[in-house]
Amino acid sequence: MNMIPVNSSNISKIGYENGTLYVEFKTRSLYAYNNVPIEVYNALMSASSHGKYLASHIKGLYSYQKLY
After folding, report:
1. Long-range contacts for 13-19 (Cβ within 8 Å, ≥24 apart)?
2. Does the structure show a pLDDT above 90 at 67?
3. Phi-psi bin for 57: left (phi > 0), alpha (psi -120 to 50), beta?
């Protein structure tokens, strides 16, 4: 899986593979969000604010695990 660096105040990199969205924060913590549709990933990547999109369209809607 390829993690793509993004221009964000709190997110460092974003990746997507087989329905799982990976978000690495600037704190170096990595989260995996499950069963995220590709359309949601694409919208996140094209959002003017990745952090705001994550907060309003992903957090609380998809189950997740903190990987590290």
Report:
1. 14/41, 14/44, 14/45, 14/50, 16/41
2. yes
3. alpha
- Within 10 angstroms of residue 32's Cβ, the number of other Cβ atoms is 17
**Pairing mode, strands 30-33 and 64-66:** antiparallel
What pLDDT, in 10s, does the model give residues 11-57? 999 999 999 999 999 999 999 999 999 999 999 999 999 999 999 99
Whether residue 1 is predicted with pLDDT greater than 90 in this model: the reply is: no
Predicted TM-score (pTM) of the model is 0.95
What residue type is assigned to position 67 of the chain?
L
Nearest to 44 by CA among 19, 14, 67: 14
Of residues 68, 3, 61, the one with CA closest to residue 36: 61
